[in-house]
Amino acid sequence: MAGKSKLLKVVLLGDGGVGKSSLMNRFVSNKFDAQSFHTIGVEFLNKDVEVDSEAYTMQIWDTAGQERFKSLRTPFYRGADCCLLTYAVDDLQSFKNLAMWKKEFLFYADIQDGNSFPFVVLGNKIDVENRLVPEEEAKAWCAANGGSPYFETSAKDSTNVDRAFKSAVQRLRELEDRMDIKPAHGNTVDLQKKSKSNPGCCG
């Protein structure tokens, strides 16, 4: 089964300090380091998962959130299959910056239609007491941005981390299924072309 595993490139995006590295490490190795440092540039880890009885190898790219590392991270957006937009629920600015991260990703990944790309939004650090971003507000943002799935996570106590990453694969499958349906519309156009020629035959 390992030989049939499909490789998926997953990019983690969000402000520095929202817990992207902690989420990746919790998902891949089930570890949490309270002393973890900011990522410099980009690093990645692989994790084999099974979603709907199919094997995938998720290659998760953790990018540095600081502005000074922009030129280091943006080349890695190309070829991504999914993107996890991450903010911290105790950091209002990191939530407000989600739109900026999405725009940056779409531009450098050269994706024309953002609504047909699998984004998943993570509100991390739900273990903290001083929450500043209401869940309803985050869900409203997701609804207004292509209906992206939303998960509230905690890398510290592992809440929803596994579900959130696997949902990126499910979202990709959903959107691919929709794309597979699209050729049917092409056939409709052909039928219309034929029907247009019919009056000529009968005239």
UniProtKB/TrEMBL annotation:
PANTHER family on file: RAB FAMILY, RE17845P
Intracellular or extracellular location(s): Cell membrane; Cytoplasmic vesicle, Phagosome membrane
An example Gene Ontology biological process: protein transport
Name of the protein this chain belongs to: small monomeric GTPase
GO molecular function, one term: G protein activity
One GO CC term on file: phagocytic vesicle membrane
Entry keywords, A to Z: Cell membrane, Cytoplasmic vesicle, GTP-binding, Hydrolase, Lipoprotein, Membrane, Nucleotide-binding, Phosphoprotein, Prenylation, Protein transport, Transport
Reaction(s) the record says it catalyses: GTP + H2O = GDP + phosphate + H(+)
EC annotation from Swiss-Prot or TrEMBL: 3.6.5.2
Residue segments, region Disordered: 183-203
Enzyme class at the top of the EC tree: hydrolase
Principal location class: membrane
Membrane topology listed for this record: Lipid-anchor
Cofactor or coenzyme needed: Mg(2+)
Family: Belongs to the small GTPase superfamily. Rab family.
InterPro entries the record matches: P-loop_NTPase, Small_GTP-bd, Small_GTPase
